[in-house]
Write a structure and sequence with these properties.
The chain is mainly α and 460 residues long. The chain has one domain (2-44, 176-457). The protein is built from 15 helices and no strands. The chain has helices at 2-73, 76-79, 83-102, 107-129, 134-149, 155-174, 181-186, 191-209, 215-275, 287-295, 324-329, 343-369, 381-388, 395-425, 430-457. α1 (2-73) runs parallel beside α9 (215-275) and α12 (343-369) packs antiparallel against α14 (395-425). Residues 294-322 are annotated as: Disordered. The chain crosses the membrane at residues 178-201, 213-233. Keywords: Membrane, Transmembrane, Transmembrane helix.
């Protein structure tokens, strides 16, 4: 019975082991390849498109702010909207081109933005051409502001819709089936029958050949456990890095650009309110409403109206906003941050500059409120200086300082995103080692079985 059944079992065991070795290579390679494909699609196209759209909004909002400030200060009559205005438009156009390269499906929406941008720049040119005629200049500048800031149809609204669409693409990649926990765990399934086969074969050989240990099968068992552990650790590392990139680093980066957009819009709105101000009436503008997303999440109940939308001592971590774009941008940089890396100090400085920015708006409105019934805000030098002046206590200087802080935080967020993406996109050499290790597993298993098979081939 032994001379007939044992050789057949040994040959079938060898065949089964070869099949296990193939599956140990094929299944993880397939799953890891699909997962890395989803990660690459997000990293190379969807996530950059989100950032590009956020950049477009920030550059255009700043261009509008700078142009409006030039009309308020009167410098537009001498030099036009200015070099910063031209630089912002150029940067926005470059970001639009990058966004088009990252997502061909968004071409229609991008064309809408480009068409509106042409209309906007034309209106600014008309306002510049009529700078000496207050009524016409004010009208054209107001039309341009509407094209830029209209809630549903303006350029910034279209850019926000584009960014939301690109974020949906990131979310789809984030929830790709290849990255599902069940799929990631399932790729280790071939290791279970392989281990069972090794253990049962070792016991069979021990009983039938009186050898307690088989070096080849023992080495194969150790290598199988090591390969399974490496694969599981790599899958977990990639999943965590990709989750960090999508759920933390990318939102922080886009929050930085969106914060720059909101602060530029708020400052530009105040400047436009001064330029269009009517004698004897309170200064208009939606400063508090515009800045609300910085300190309050969408859908959160609105606080009682105040001139400054972030009450409390924002210079301290205890008074830092717990919601909104600033909370996203500064997450982890105040509580528990290492003082040595400068992040906490930078975050605290940003909050201080944000407080100065809101205080500058309050000071502007207070100054405008002291004007007589016959004085327009745009004709009062002190009001104009409070709106567009470069000092730290004036709105123009305050928004410049705050934008520099936000730009620095955005740079840090970009570095964090790049680090998370690099981790998620690297398999630490597993894709190259996997076929070699599986071939070694097959060889070790056959090396442990073949001498026993040869015993039955030898003449007796």
């Amino acid at each position: 019975m032994r001379t007939v059944g044992t050789p057949l079992r040994l040959r079938r065991t060898a065949q089964g082991w070869l099949l296990c070795a193939v599956l140990l290579w094929a299944v993880p390679a397939l799953v890891l390849g699909g997962a890395h494909g989803a990660v690459s699609a997000a990293q190379d196209h969807a996530a950059p498109a989100v950032v590009d759209a956020a950049q477009v909004g920030a550059y255009l909002a700043d261009a509008d702010r700078v142009a409006t400030a030039g009309f308020v200060a009167g410098t537009v009559q001498l030099s036009g909207p200015g070099q910063q205005y031209q630089d912002d438009l150029k940067s926005a156009e470059q970001a639009l081109e990058r966004a088009a390269g990252h997502d061909a499906n968004g071409a229609g929406q991008l064309q809408t933005v480009e068409g509106l941008l042409v209309e906007y720049t034309s209106l600014i040119e008309q306002a510049h051409a009529n700078a000496g005629r207050n009524t016409l200049s004010t009208a054209y500048l107001g039309y341009a502001a509407g094209v830029m800031n209209a809630p549903d149809t303006g350029i910034l609204a279209q850019v926000a819709a584009l960014q939301a669409a690109e974020q949906d693409r990131v979310d789809r990649q984030r929830h790709s089936g290849w990255l599902a926990p069940a799929v990631q765990i399932g790729m280790l399934a071939p290791a279970v029958p392989a281990l069972v086969l090794l253990v049962s074969t070792q016991r069979f050989l021990s009983r039938h050949f009186r050898r307690r240990l088989n070096p080849g099968l023992l080495a194969a068992t150790v290598l199988l456990l090591a390969l399974s552990g490496w694969t599981a650790a790599e899958a977990l590392r990639d999943y965590r890095a990709f989750t960090t990139a999508c759920d933390r680093a990318l939102p922080r980066l886009t929050a930085g650009w969106q914060a720059r957009t909101l602060t530029a819009r708020a400052a530009g709105g105040d400047a436009l309110a001064v330029f269009r101000g009517i004698p004897g009436q309170p200064l208009g503008g939606d400063f508090g409403t515009t800045l609300a997303p910085l300190t309050r999440d969408a859908g959160a109940p609105a606080p009682a109206p105040t001139l400054a939308p972030a009450p409390g001592d924002l210079a301290s971590p205890a008074g830092a906003p717990s919601q909104g774009k600033l909370a996203q941008l500064l997450a982890g940089d105040l509580a528990g941050a290492d003082p040595a890396d400068g992040r906490r100090a930078g975050a605290e400085h940003l909050l201080q500059d944000y407080r100065r920015f809101t205080d500058a708006d309050a000071a502007l409105r207070q100054r405008a409120g002291t004007l007589g019934q016959d004085a327009a805000p745009a004709t009062d030098p002190a009001t104009v200086a409070a709106a567009v002046g470069p000092a730290g206590t004036q709105l123009g200087g305050a928004v410049t300082a705050l934008d520099a802080d936000l730009a620095a935080r955005t740079t840090l967020a970009r570095q964090d995103l790049a680090g998370a993406e690099a981790t998620a996109g690297s398999d630490q050499g597993l894709s190259l080692a996997l076929p070699l290790l599986c071939a070694a597993l097959a060889g070790l298993g056959l090396a442990g079985l073949w001498p026993r098979i040869d015993e039955y081939r030898a003449p007796r």
